[in-house]
Amino acid sequence: MNLGIKVCALVGAAFFLQAQPPPQAQIADVSMVWGRAPHNAFTDLARYHERWYCAFREGTDHNSSDGAVRVLTSADARVWQPAALLTAEGAGLRDPKLSVTPRGQLLLNAVAVYREPSGARHQSLVWYSSDAREWDGPVAVGDPNLWLWRVTWHGNQAYSVGYSTQGAPSIRLYAGAEGSRFTVHAGDLFAGGEPNEASLLFSPDGTALCLLRTGGANPASRLGRARAPYRGWSWTNLNVFLGGPNLIRLPDGRLVAGGRMTTGNPRTALAWLDLEAGTLTEFLALPSGGDTGYPGLVYHDGLLYVSYYSSHEGRAMIYLAKVKLPPPGAAPRPKAYR
User: Fold this and answer.
1) Could you point out which of 50, 144, 247, 274 has its C-alpha 20 to 30 Å from the C-alpha of 25?
2) What are the residue ranges in the chain where pLDDT is below 70?
């Protein structure tokens, strides 16, 4: 091969490499795992003692007063079996979330919506278990009519953002140890915009991140940041609406958010959260539509596992997707909060 041909070949190879689109996230597998109730929704996912656990609400419809919490378990995230069905006397249950306590128990938190309230309309509850079949509880936590949406552990302390369901919209940060009732750690975290559902994540340096859904005239997600002791918060408008938000840090440090997006057709979507730019960028829409969202997120053995619900096949049912993510260079990597 003469020099001219060699140069042309090298240029052609370089152009070919540059012209290739960056690697994209791919759905490795997706399946419907539960649909026995008329309406199955509002999921969360956990890996505990080498098994998978998925919790969600069963009810007659999206807003019915007969909600119960179903817990499924699986050894391989393919074949699922019922583990428990939790109910509350005189109330429907909503939005179950799973976490593992510092002592190695499984904690499930949800809210009770009382059908004939004599006082409070809502009360946040927790249960504890070592096998997801027998549960101790429920135990009331937080304050009446303050909806503690998701519990996140940092060290030996549990944190949860609770939002008001009566009176003026507001959110508070609750904290508590295992077995405690959780007390207000910081009040009035966010002003305006009807704040409600929130997911917390703690950075390796201890910085707290809060992915918050807000309503009102201009609904959008907000990113909150605070250093210990987590009483002073700064907020960034992400200008993207994400319902039922969840947030996870990958082993390489990238941040993935999941939830319901409503621009165009409603869908359950995954997005990169870039801390430095203050942006939320959708990178994958899961098979979904209609009444959908509220994902659970777990990263395991090189795949992102996502539980969610959707009515795109006729009625609201529970799905599990396994997602292969692109390598770090193909997506935003968050930088330290300063």
Assistant:
1) 50
2) 1-22, 330-338
